[in-house]
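User: I'm new to structure prediction. If I give you an amino acid sequence, what do you actually give back? Let's try with this one:
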Amino acid sequence: MQQESAYWLAWSKIPGVGPVLLKRVWQQFGNLETAWKASPEALCQVEGIGAKLLNTIKQQRSQINPLELHKKHLQNNPQFWTPNQDNYPRLLLEIPSPPPLLYYQGQVNLLENQGHTPLVGIVGTRYPTDHGRRWTRNIAIALVKHGFTVVSGMAAGIDGVAHQACLEAGGRTIAVLGTGVDIVYPSHHRQLHRDLQKRGLIISEYPAGTPGDRRHFPARNRIIAGLSRAVLVMEAPEKSGALITARYANEFCRDVYTLPNSPEVAQARGCLRLIHQGAEMIVTEDELLEMLGAIPELDQAKQLSLFEVEKKEDVPKLDPELLKIFQAISTEATSFDVIVEKAGLPTAQVSGGLLQLELEGLITQLPGMRYQRLN
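Assistant: Good question. You get back a string of structure tokens that encode the predicted 3D arrangement of the chain. For your 375 residues, that looks like this:
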């Protein structure tokens, strides 16, 4: 397991190989050590690896010793997960771009990583109104008292209010950073950072010492959405990073809730846009808790990795490629992106196959481009 993590690190150092492509490589070869030693011809079978990138990969493989790189990396980064490890958060495996390395600092709760404790994201503007602060605090406290873990980004404003309220209520909260886990950003959150290390968890896809960079934060937002079963946007102007998180949540088939306010309040206009686009309104704490309570706990017995095929006694007789699509769909709702990734087929072919399976009465389409097998 440790050796395989060394190859995740090595692959992540190759320019042009990002999280999406690295996931495809992993799916193609089953593990990254095998991929590292694969022939150029075999690597070319991975969608996204062309002649130029293949040449870069060949050069980097000749210069990098994965095991030595891993040993050196551990000196400053002793704690991180890679997708091949059991402790890697299961919900992140569902998204098209799981972080190749996920660094952490603080108190780990494996029930959260395995999906048995529901995680809810709370995001919003750095400049909230009193209304936004009050509702964020009250909802964060209500969530942790009912067994939820709150995920946010430790930014100024709504994020900080949510984290602080959780800690004061004695609950769990996870901060996803756009810096290294050892960097305090913004600087006035120094005490919050210390408190999170003692009673919460701090995670990031960036190694220790990585400073704040505005390009990192949109990428950070996909991790917040990916970790969460639902995302609450408390206040957001029309141009806001919180809306990026909501967009990712929609793409990942997560539920999105938002707090309404007057159109005259600039910090609320993004929330009103979300409501117009179909987000659920937060009206009362009790109603929100009731809706969130309908999210089922992930069943350990029914969980599938991205590379396992759900075993059924009666498998329909289908053409091989159509069978791949069918086997990529669970009895639980499965997003289109996950089906494409698991089937390993072109998007257009998957779309056509899904229509055929639906016409044959084997699957049904659900809202949000999700599909489900019919019993």
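You can read the tokens as a compact description of the fold. Here is one thing that stands out. Residues 130-145 form the longest helix (16 residues).
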